Amino acid sequence: MPIRDDVIRLGQLLQLAGIVDSGSDAKLVLLGGEVLVNGAVETRRGRQLRAGDEVEVFGERVVVASEA
Fold first, then answer.
1. C-beta atoms surrounding 63 within 10 Å
2. 42, 30 in Cβ contact below 8 A?
3. How many domains, the chain?
4. Is 64 within 8 Å of 49 (Cβ atoms)?
5. Res 19 pLDDT > 70
6. In this structure, are strands 65-66 and 2-3 parallel, antiparallel, or unpaired?
């Protein structure tokens, strides 16, 4: 998933990738322990992600890439 800036918040990424429909949906998925960032469970919607970070949710994997 290419991003324009240096960082993107996890909740925003989940929405842009079409994994969740809204920020409140992202919060529920995160609180349920369903999201892995670089192999570790992440519960913070505001977690900042950079190019190279890997997010896995419900068996779907998204890799953050810079838009170059």
1. 13
2. yes
3. 1
4. yes
5. yes
6. parallel
Strand partners, 56: 36, 61
pTM, 2 dp: 0.87
Q: Residue 37 and residue 40: Cα distance in Å, rounded?
A: 5
* Sequence letter at residue 4: R
What CATH number is given to the structural domain containing 16?
A: 3.10.290.10
Instruction: Show the domain range for 60.
Output: 2-66
| CA 2 and chain centroid, separation | 12
Give kind and range of the element (H or E) at residue 37: strand 35-37
Closest CA to 61 of 30, 36, 28: 36
> Could you report the per-residue pLDDT of 48-61, keeping only the tens digit for each?
999 999 999 999 99
